[in-house]
Write a structure and sequence with these properties.
InterPro entries: FAD-dep_OxRdtase (IPR006076), FAD/NAD-bd_sf (IPR036188)
Largest sheet: 9 strands, mixed
GO molecular function, one term: oxidoreductase activity
Protein name: FAD-dependent oxidoreductase
Mean pLDDT: 92
Organism: Psychrobacter halodurans
Keywords: Oxidoreductase
Structural class: alpha+beta
Radius of gyration: 23 Å
Low-confidence stretches: none
Length: 507
């Protein structure tokens, strides 16, 4: 008789937990996901596919290339989550940097993209390599400002017309840089993961569920730091929607994966693993601007993180909604929002106020105040944005950062083979599929899964079952339900330009 499938427990249903679950369930592993919230992938603010990491002038070129590769890879798993529109990067006149400083990196990224397409033509999801980035000088922008804005932009020039009209060209250096970095929609990502996991009979998703304890079951020399574990017991409590009673249960698994996001250290403490890490509370703000005149690209104005002149990020959604990041302590960052672990615990302790925001929602007065500060900050560069209004909500949460470097942007997973434990530590959501691959390799070495199978090869060809019979409209429907459930405008669940439609129209 065939052996029953091995069991894997995944604690946390954010981007990491959900993506790892898709990967493992596809291989036939009995995969159990435990998520505290009502639905999957309801976490820290995200809005941007970092296909090249151009937001971060401070990180190394090799990290930018890694982000490019990871983004293209995960885009092919979640194609209906992407809004195809360029991102405009501007260096303000008050900044010491120059636009030309960024060009060598952009050439490296263009070459890397060209090489990825040579390896697999299906990697051409960001347009032609020669169009990966383009430059616009002052004279070009003045000419574009005279043109009539196009309702549905089809060319980069058409995307740049509203930038030329609305951006204060006296406050930026030239050239402006336009890069094919697209929007990434968290509501559509949550919908895609939910539909993908529904494809697998081996995927078991527990939402509204709190893990209370994890304990080794089969353990050799448990009093020794060099002990071995072959099974874990997960104790959990689930809220019953019918009776509102709390149901307690437990399950044994052959491998344990910690994907708890900013609460990762809580599980590390239970497991007995000492780790150094940081957690940062961050927030972005949702506004409505009725004077945009149609679709506009994302606009990034560089600045030094954590200073009063930190980066400004204006991210468009359909129907005039915009998400704002301002990387200063008055807007997205918080004076006491970055905390570190200590020798007593692997879990950094966020101030209780931020834990309250994460668990219960923002208090109205500080949310409104920060939203207005965000609007005023963007309006320094886009003057007519002063007319924008807060919609009384934000995307926020705790972001984990492994180690002691708060500029780290590329991280994936830590593996502990002796105790059959993995910890996913993804600073950026694009790293999650790579993390899943590393866990699969570890499971194969432990003899818990076989990788020489069609299902494993399908991953690298991106043949995901849910994509065969779910289209953009299906994703849209589920995403709208999630946006409404979470208290956001339903329009934010949509995209103006879907990736598959854009690829088809370019053929």
């Amino acid at each position: 008789m065939p052996q029953p499938a091995k069991r894997v427990g995944i604690l946390g249903g954010g981007t990491a937990g959900a993506t790892i679950a898709i990967r493992l369930a596809a291989l036939g592993l009995e995969t159990y996901v435990f998520e505290k919230k009502q639905s999957l992938i309801d976490g820290p603010p995200m809005c941007h596919l970092h296909a090249g990491g151009n937001l971060y002038r401070e990180i190394p070129d090799e990290d930018c290339v890694a982000l490019l590769k990871q983004c293209i890879d995960i885009l092919r798993l979640y194609p209906y989550t992407i809004d195809v529109r360029p991102t405009v990067f501007a260096v303000p006149t008050r900044d010491e940097g120059l636009p030309e400083d960024l060009l060598p990196r952009l050439d490296i990224l263009t070459d890397a993209y060209r090489e990825l397409i040579a390896q697999d033509p299906n990697n051409k999801v960001l347009g032609e390599p020669e169009d990966y980035y383009q430059l616009y000088n002052h004279e070009q922008l003045l000419a574009l400002a005279e043109r009539e804005q196009v309702a549905i932009p089809r060319t980069v020039d058409e995307w740049m017309i509203p930038v030329a009209k609305y951006l204060d060209l006296n406050k930026v250096k030239f050239p402006l840089i336009v890069v094919q970095e697209y929007g990434w929609n968290i509501f559509r990502l949550a919908a895609s993961a939910q539909l993908a996991l529904a494809e697998y009979e081996h995927a078991h998703v527990f939402t509204d569920t709190t893990v209370t304890q994890v304990m080794p079951v089969d353990c050799e020399n448990c009093t020794n730091a060099d002990h071995h574990v072959t099974k874990w017991r997960i104790d959990y409590q689930s809220a019953s929607s019918s009776t509102e009673a709390v149901q307690e249960d437990a399950i044994e698994v052959d491998y344990l994966i910690n994907a708890c996001g900013f609460r990762t250290g809580v599980i590390d403490d239970m497991v007995g693993v000492a780790v150094t890490r940081m957690v940062e509370f961050k927030s972005s703000y949702i506004t409505h601007w009725g004077e945009a005149g149609g679709q506009i690209p994302e606009i990034i104005v560089y600045g030094n993180r954590g200073t009063p002149e930190g980066m400004a990020q204006l991210t468009p959604y359909p129907d005039g909604y915009f998400q704002i990041h301002g990387m200063s302590h008055a807007i997205t960052l918080f004076d006491d929002g970055l905390v570190a672990s200590n020798t007593d615990s692997a879990q950094p302790k966020l101030p209780q106020q931020y834990v309250h925001y994460i668990e219960d929602g923002w208090d109205k007065a500080p949310l409104q105040a920060r939203s207005q500060q965000a609007i005023d900050y963007v309006a320094q560069f886009v003057p007519t944005f002063h007319s924008a209004r807060s919609v009384g909500n934000a995307l926020y949460g705790g972001q984990q950062i492994p180690g002691e470097d708060d500029t780290l942007r590329v991280a994936d997973v830590s593996l502990y083979a002796d105790i059959r434990y993995a910890r996913a530590e993804n600073v950026k959501a694009s790293s999650t599929l790579i993390a899943a691959d590393q866990i699969v390799n570890e499971l194969a070495e432990l003899g818990l899964v076989t990788t020489d199978t069609p299902a494993n090869r399908h991953r690298y060809a991106h043949k995901w079952p849910y994509l065969a019979h779910n289209d953009s409209l299906t994703i849209d429907s589920v995403a709208r339900e999630l946006a409404e459930q979470r208290g956001f405008p339903m329009a934010m669940a949509g995209v103006n330009h879907g990736i598959r439609e854009a690829i088809l129209s370019s053929l």
